[in-house]
Design brief:
alpha/beta, Rossmann fold, 16 helices, binds adenosine-3'-5'-diphosphate
Length: 265
Amino acid sequence: MMCSEETFHALESFEARESDFLIATYPKCGTNWVIQILHEMVFYINNKEPSIVQAMLEFGRPEKIQTQNEAPSPRVFSTHLYYDNIPKSFFEKKVKTLLILRNPKDTAVSFFHFSNNNPVLPSYGSWDLFFKDYIEGKVCSGSYFDHTASWSKHIDDEHIMPLTFEDMKLDYFNNLKKISKFLGLSLSEEQLKIVESKTVFKSMKEKSGDTHGKLGNVFFRKGEIGDWKSIFSESQSKEMDAKFEECLAGERIGEILNYSRYCKN
Ligand code: A3P
């Protein structure tokens, strides 16, 4: 899941366009969900799918940057990069960016199962071992806390909109409306209802074999809020609370995450 050194350097020559869309996430915060939402929305407005198939900016071979630079608009990209590693042209062109956040406890549980069931990632013999690496930021893609803090200073930028997994789950239709308005994709209520029905968890899980092959059930596991309660010990929960307090509680992004609602018993 890590970006190769060559691809990382090749990204310096990436040419963003004003018409692009970017989805920024820490892994397991709902990346594939929002990619599908954007594909559906772009399809309605442009009558064609976005041209980029392998959407994750930093994955793949360095040569793909050239192909992406030549691909026709509209393009939808996603990334797990820290803010400071995003190619500068995304900011120069004020590319509309959705920052998708999820509470750190559910994110950890999702990441643990994903790591153990995805053959390209390291397997963990136990949850306790994974938890230790996660808290210390030693999992692939680095620390949840550093990643989130890196985006925190920019959540008021006009071209960046933060949204949480939890808000999307609990008030999906209104959040779809918010997304379409922010992206300048004005879908009718009727079209938004269709996007909603195609991208709710149940629909995406049912189609996951077609969209994600053998990893379908791994990417679309439970899609719930609060699964952390099934696996965290009391002391792990307290340790995560302290880490959150130290790294994010004082930041505006900490407020957006609504930690006390989703991560306290
Ligand atoms: P769980 O493992 O908790 O089920 P990513 O796409 O960033 O890898 O995130 C994967 C997580 O998002 C998984 O969480 C997955 O089930 C959840 N997810 C994917 N699509 C979803 C949807 N339409 N609604 C709710 N959750 C979804």
